[in-house]
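Regression test case RT-17, inverse folding.

Input:
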């Protein structure tokens, strides 16, 4: 690339090195704009004679071409690409979704290419119309060798980001207490309803049971038959793990345990298992307050029917101190 100041009439096909403003401060053309014949006429009508431009050399890929190509390979799911001035492309959710991010691949891309990518946080909930990523090119152009390497990496290992739709998501809740299940419902239902509304879930199936192994097992089985996206166990007790009442009831109905303990505060006593493909979560103390806790982190991917692994729960420790 070579920057220089040239006569207006000689600038067709070249790239603006700096934005051009009208008197009064209104932007006329953005930096990085490729000048066309009609642009030349506009600039001449503004009384301009010379401008700063950058001329791309052989082997350069223009910034707009680079970010547009990367945007087409970097993600999948419910999103659209919106190009912006200055070598930038925004990814915008087209429906309510959970954002899943391959952190390792994202870091590698941001270390090695002439393009950088900023995304929403992994496992975060995004509303329709919300920006979930921005792709930005180095000014004016990217060397073709870097560009080809980046596209090859994304084709082989991508995508970096998934906008996983949450259409039809449903939540079932088992309220349990050692003396009276309805006590747990009275304590937790209002808070839980407000938590779910943040994810656009306006109603949920609920069942209150006595916290005994057979009662909890029957309740879980009854809720499982409704085929929800996720089952939450809202207990008034603080379980000690898979060997307590809730854990034994989960095992009794054929639930496979995936994880006990999460590096998240509040929510470190998380117990997570799967009955076939339906996740069941027990998180003591997390239904008493609207403050963020492990439930807020786990619900979006599970409502998008993504199978969260023990490794992914372990990764929540970075930023897991929520309050």
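Golden output:
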């Amino acid at each position: 690339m070579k920057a220089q100041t040239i006569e207006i009439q000689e600038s067709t096909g070249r790239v603006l090195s700096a934005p051009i403003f009208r008197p009064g401060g209104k932007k006329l053309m953005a930096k990085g704009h490729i000048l066309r014949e009609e642009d030349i006429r506009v600039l001449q009508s503004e009384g301009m004679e010379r401008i700063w431009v950058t001329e791309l050399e052989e082997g350069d890929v223009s910034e707009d071409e680079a970010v547009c190509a990367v945007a087409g390979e970097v993600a999948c799911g419910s999103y659209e690409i919106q190009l912006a001035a200055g070598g930038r492309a925004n990814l915008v959710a087209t429906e309510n979704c959970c954002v899943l991010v391959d952190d390792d691949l994202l870091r590698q891309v941001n270390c090695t290419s002439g393009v950088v990518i900023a995304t929403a946080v992994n496992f975060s909930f995004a509303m329709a119309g919300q920006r979930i990523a921005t792709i930005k090119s180095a000014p004016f152009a990217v060397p073709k060798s870097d560009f080809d390497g980046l596209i090859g990496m994304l084709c082989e290992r991508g995508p970096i980001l998934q906008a996983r739709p949450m259409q039809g998501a449903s939540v079932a809740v088992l309220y349990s207490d050692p003396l009276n299940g309805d006590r747990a419902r009275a304590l937790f239902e209002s808070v839980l309803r407000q938590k779910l509304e943040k994810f656009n879930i306006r109603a949920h199936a609920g069942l209150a049971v006595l916290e005994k192994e057979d009662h909890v097992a029957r309740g879980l089985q009854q809720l499982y038959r409704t085929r929800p996206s996720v089952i939450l166990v809202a207990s008034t007790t603080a379980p000690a793990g898979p060997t307590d009442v809730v854990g034994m009831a989960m095992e009794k109905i054929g639930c496979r345990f995936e994880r006990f303990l999460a590096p998240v505060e509040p929510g470190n006593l998380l117990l997570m298992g799967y009955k076939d493909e339906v996740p069941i979560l027990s998180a003591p103390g997390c239904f008493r307050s609207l403050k963020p806790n492990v439930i807020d982190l786990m619900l979006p991917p599970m409502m998008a029917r993504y199978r969260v692994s023990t490794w992914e729960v372990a990764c929540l420790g970075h930023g897991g101190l929520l309050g």
